[in-house]
Write the structure tokens for this entry.
Amino acid sequence: MEPWRCPIRPGGDRYNDFRHLQEICVSFGDPGAENKHFNTNSVRSFRLVLQVLDSTLREGELFRLYPSDVRVRVASRLADSGLKRVELTVDYPPRTSFREVVPVVKALRDRGVEVVMHGRACEEDIEAIRRYKADGCALYIAVSRLHREYKLHGISEDEVIERLCTAVRVARESGFGYIRATLEDSSRIYLEDGEEGLAKIANSIQRLKESGATIVSLPDTSGLLTPRLTRDFFMRASTSASLPLAAHFHNDYGLATANTIEAALEGAEEVHATLLGIGDRNGIADMYELVATLEDVHGVRTGLNRSSLRELYEYFSRVTGNRNTLASPAFQRGKDGQGGRSPEHDSQKEGGLHPFKKTGERLQ
């Protein structure tokens, strides 16, 4: 496991997480669905198709900034792997420049990918985003009490939401078809304020809808949630939300991918991930882990080409020095004599006892 993916284990009591099993019910629609024989978990509001947003060239650059030629090649390969929506960061000189970002935008748009530029909820960043002629914009501002006090000089919650609404209105007037409003650190509001916090989030989403937002992100900015908490948070939030929700989870306790899966199964319509899970601090959800689990275990289609994605992982590991570990489902089992098969696990069944999509192509 890479250093940025290895969380510090917290203390505390262990808890039983089996009660939800009483509530599970699974539907794969067509009885002939490919994975109907391999499902273990439930979904509350099952969906067959899910939008995956790649943030390797936005969130991932908080971990490390890569040379322009590498970014262009990664962007091209993301498109070749079937990604339809990719997020980039608006330029922030001197760290990045307009000249460096433009070729990445072009590589994506030439391949039919929807480009979303990420920036702060202020007119300055929206003006910078306009220059790229991007398809969409993602505007963020911190909403939790802690962030408002220490990042935003103690302004009120209402003022924060009004700033975000104002930015959304400017983005709408600028003609963006996709406008994502991010309530940064919203998971902390759920944890600290409970039902009252959820009501505040629902009210904020309604105000953002009226201002022109098309989707709202409820990120776990500090990586505080567990799968059990995520399930409850997104179940309740999606029930009351008047806009589609996006899920963005940080990996401080090693749960980002699991949390993102739970959010998807509880109603999130867009999920965020990066190659190898790179990102700020311990990173976010790992793209291949997320896609493999959603498709193989839950029968949710993402539209990604897993063979191309594995090749992209190998390329990305090679050019960036970020190693693809044995623990990753994208790892080529048996390659170079590593990661061999266990007869105890595979038994005598042709192809073994593991899901075909995970093993089939690697055994050829």
User: Anything to note?
Assistant: The first strand starts at residue 51 and ends at 54. The chain is about 40% helix and 10% strand.
